[in-house]
Amino acid sequence: MTTNWAYNLDMLAQNGVLDFDAPSFVMGQNPRYVGRPMRPPSPYAGQIPPAPAINQPEIDEFKMQKTKQPSVEKTENADEIKNPAWKKWLFGALAISGLVLLGFKGKTIYNWVKSVPSKISNKFKNFSFKKAKNYVVDKAKKFGNFVKKCWNKFIGLFKSKKP
Question: Are 24 and 30 in contact (CB under 8 A)?
Answer without folding.
Answer: yes
